[in-house]
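Researcher: Quick one. three chains, 420 residues in total.
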Amino acid sequence: MKFYQTEIRLKSQRRGFHLITEEVLQALPEIKHINIGQLQVFIKHTSASLTINENADPSVRTDFESHINKMVPENAPYYIHTYEGPDDMPAHIKASLMGASVQIPISNGRLNLGVWQGIYLCEHRDRGGSRSVVITAFGN
Amino acid sequence: MKFYQTEIRLKSQRRGFHLITEEVLQALPEIKHINIGQLQVFIKHTSASLTINENADPSVRTDFESHINKMVPENAPYYIHTYEGPDDMPAHIKASLMGASVQIPISNGRLNLGVWQGIYLCEHRDRGGSRSVVITAFGN
Amino acid sequence: MKFYQTEIRLKSQRRGFHLITEEVLQALPEIKHINIGQLQVFIKHTSASLTINENADPSVRTDFESHINKMVPENAPYYIHTYEGPDDMPAHIKASLMGASVQIPISNGRLNLGVWQGIYLCEHRDRGGSRSVVITAFGN
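Model:
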């Protein structure tokens, strides 16, 4: 049984959805030693999140940002947590809708993603800065 | 420490929410050898997803489909990723709202689900076809 | 390789979002024996859920409840699963939006959460009662 873990800071990104599959893979090359297992990426923040979605056409990521801003608008009249700026409370809600972690099977030393799947960093703040993630891989 | 993994194609389903608990259990009977552990089901697609919800009254699954179509409508004027049809971009967003995987505890050789819980395949495309899932179980 | 698991009933909570990090930690003190690993908390219900979000200002949790009630309203005209009361079908949908489990890295015997992160019980029913969760920790 193997257990590997590392913590990295992702490249700072503007508000929106961003592919980070390569950054994650480069941070934990030990994945190649795992025959059957799992990889988890966990983000240590409450106003940014992680999800898995299409890795090809960037217009998908643009539409994600447009739609989530409709689903969770800024300046809703019922928000009371407003002192950190209009992008703050929506960012918390968006983060829980997308989730704080992704968990991906490992097969034969590689992430067993579908052909069109990639890992997204979902940056919900206007100026979120660099985000910390814990990457854990385990298996036989 | 035991690690089991298999990849299967689920029965093709129409757009909507569908119970797949039995299909999953039949695909990995080795769960019975695990005393304490976890089962993960991971879908290798970005326009279908997995979730856990009520396993009894089919009207729950009908209402899921009705409501998610309201939350993530087709033909929103701000979508730019439209060339794969009106059901495509909503399908990507719905997939991330529900999630690409479910992770369930195993106790005494069985899934430790609540009495009313089942695993749903959420098919977000009009004609998604058969979907591939990777099923991983591990534990002592 | 260590595997620990316990099942507890959480303190009954009113409808809304509630911090349960301490309840979880007290239920599985064996976390301290794990150097690198993972903790999972899984809720055995389909009308309550778990997520990770801000552990400080209670106004964040109030706004979560306000907004999720807008996103998934009661008495939508298209609901057909209505015989368990107006809060029931929305509760099922909210539960899948938030998710049935959280999975957190363990590092050096402690949960490796961000400074501002806590575990939320999301109680979506008016009178949900006490909720059962399965807590599993594993690692080296």
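Chain C has three helices and eight strands.
Researcher: Thanks, that's what I needed.
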